[in-house]
Amino acid sequence: MRYLLIIPLVLAACAQVEAVSPLADPRERGPFIARSDFPNPPNVERAASGAGCSGEPLRAVAAPMPEYPARGWSRGLQGWSIVQFDVAQAGTVENVRIARGVPGGSFDHEAQRAVEGWRFQALSEGAYLSGCVVLFEFKMGEVTVR
Known about the structure:
The protein has 146 residues and is α+β, with helices and mostly antiparallel strands. The protein contains four helices and six strands, in the order ααβαββαβββ. The strands form two sheets. The protein has a four-stranded antiparallel β-sheet, covered by helices on one side. Strands 1-4 form a two-stranded antiparallel ribbon.
């Protein structure tokens, strides 16, 4: 009699179930579901003054946006990152650093990685811009720049 109860369990275990890889990108599985509120937007000037980044216009040649972090997506997290960087005369980005970020971690990593890939038109001879600032908002599964 006990064997009759075990057989359906064994057969159920043999049924084909859609495999979900733990390494699969959660952004491909479906819509973003917010499980946290968007943190209060920062006062960017207090966190990182961009005073040194003036006097020369910046014209982007390449400015890829950060990816929404897969880990943040799967957990329904939202946040923002303030990134500071310098621009050399050749238009290359240097000294990329996070001034402040909430919740930090993978959001800051994605923001920093994106800015490291930015390129601008060459500046005037001898020009160098320092402390340029950009704010990325990771909100409702999308990334915007402010």
